[in-house]
Structure formats: structure tokens, C-alpha cells
């Protein structure tokens, strides 16, 4: 297929050119790496006021995103398949994500807390599927309201830097029978040491279990908590994201690995490997392994 061959060629050329040239042309001081305080404006010296757009989750485009078992017949737990026949989907598609946050209230609650609004959107685009007129297979929208509080104490050799709570909504904006959405209250704790950052996030679903639930038992598949472990050095970033249902019976979850390497300034090559449930909302109870290759645009 021409599109796939072209995408592979562009990525291969970028990678090989970078490997040959980054030692000659890339300056280490051009690589921006944010501490937790800089990313979330925790210390007084890092405060930047309100209503300034900042990066949040990874911001990337993957021209090649392959699944070993793409979900051709979406089906919620305990319900009939959404379609009478499997959809003729391609196993290779384009995946991209945009994400940003902005502080809307600074130094509230005894002058220590900050209130942020975050937004993340993930797209799975069947751009190589000419037979189906190249549709977007799945779009996930995730706005959230985050209350954040700085910390400063030692925990198991790490410096605890912040804790807080968020109200999180996630939806694919689709009508029945492929509508998917849920609301969560998410607690978070962030730790830092040298080149490592760790985010721990347990959550509780709000309003699930009713008869008109779009995605029953989603927390049993996507999970009830996640641990995000990030390592950065010399512009290279490695990230391991673990999610789990925290259930001894029928335990489910997922693991995602991201590796980002410097190309030029804040432009990075991006490799992503995922295995488990909940790669997106339409696949919340669908097990698959995916591999994506593309570029990231900003540090996170």
C-alpha cells in the first residue's frame, strides 16, 4: 500500500539520518527537560500565573500504528455485538494524541494549592482504509479538573513533590450502540529522584453500574489504578505505564512502554508498545498488542 510504504520510508529516513547526525548537529543544551516543579509550577520560583497553555500528556503523531488483533466487532460486556457483521478494518492505522493544561486558579486554599484544567484527545484514524473511505475509527475526549498541592518530604529514597485530586471525564462522543463514557475521581501522588519521576494514581468510578451503562465493568478491564514511571537522560525518555484492576479474581489491566529519542530540539522520535485491555474506550474490554512509530513534539 503506497501510504504505508511512504510512512515507513519517512520514519526510516528520519531515524537513520538522526543516528548519523545527532552527534554533530544536536547540542545538549537545546534539549528541554522539565522537573516536576517546572511542569506543575510547584515552587515559588516556577510560578507563571494563570491561563498559560502548557504541555500535559505526550503530544505525538504515529503514521504507523499496528494491532495484532484489531477490534472489528465492538461489544460491551453482557451486551450483543454493536454490528451484525465484523467491520472491515485494517490492522495498521494512524494514531495521534494532543494534550495540554492550563492553571485557572493559583495559590488557593491557604496559599498552597493550584487548580488546573487539562484536556487530552486521542485519535485512531483508518487513513489507509480506502474501502471504508478512511474513517476515524475512534476518538477519545478527556477533559479534567485537577487540584494540585506541593509536597516536600522523603519517601523510600524519592522526594514526594505533589499530591492532589482530579475529576476526570472520558468519552468517545458516539451514539449507541458504540457510545462509551465514564467519570472518575482520581487521586495522585508524584515522586522524583535524579532522572526518575513516578506518578501513582488510584481512582474511583462515579455513576457506573446502571442499566444504561455504556461500558459496564470498565474498571474491571481498564483498571482502578495506574503507575507511571518516567526516566529521562540526555534528551532520551523512557516511560512505563502500568494499569491494573486490583482484583485477585479475573485480574485485568495493561502495560504501555514509550521510548522517545531526540531528533532536533523538542522534536523526538517516538516508539510505543501496548499490551492489554483499554487501548482506547471502544476497546475497553478487548485484549490486543499494538506497536506504534512516529514523532513527539514537546517534553512531558
Defining key terms:
300 residues, mainly beta, Outer membrane phospholipase (ompla), Chain C, 13 strands, 11% helix
Structural description of this entry:
One of its GO terms (cellular component) is cell outer membrane. Its EC number is 3.1.1.32, 3.1.1.4. It is a single chain. With 300 residues, the protein is mainly beta. The protein has one domain: Outer membrane phospholipase (ompla), Chain C, CATH 2.40.230.10. It has 3 helices and 13 strands. The chain has a 12-stranded antiparallel β-barrel with strand order 2-3-4-5-6-7-8-9-10-11-12-13. A hairpin with a 4-residue loop joins strand 3 (92-108) and strand 4. The radius of gyration is 20 Å and the shape is globular.
What percentage of the residues does DSSP assign to strands (E)? Answer: over 45%
Q: Please, what is the average pLDDT?
A: 89
Topology order in helix (H) and strand (E) letters: HHEEEEEEEEHEEEEE
Spell out the CATH superfamily.
Phospholipase A1
Q: Main sheet: which strands, in order across?
A: 2-3-4-5-6-7-8-9-10-11-12-13
In the CATH scheme, the class would be: Mainly Beta
Class derived from helix and strand content: mainly beta
Number of helices: 3
Overall shape: it is globular
Provide the domain count: 1
Low-confidence stretches: 1-29
Number of strands: 13
Radius of gyration: 20 Å
What profile does the largest beta sheet have?
12 strands, antiparallel, barrel
**Percent helix:** 10-25%
Determine the CATH topology.
Outer membrane phospholipase (ompla), Chain C
The end-to-end distance, rounded to whole angstroms, is 34 Å
If classified by CATH, what would the architecture be?
Beta Barrel
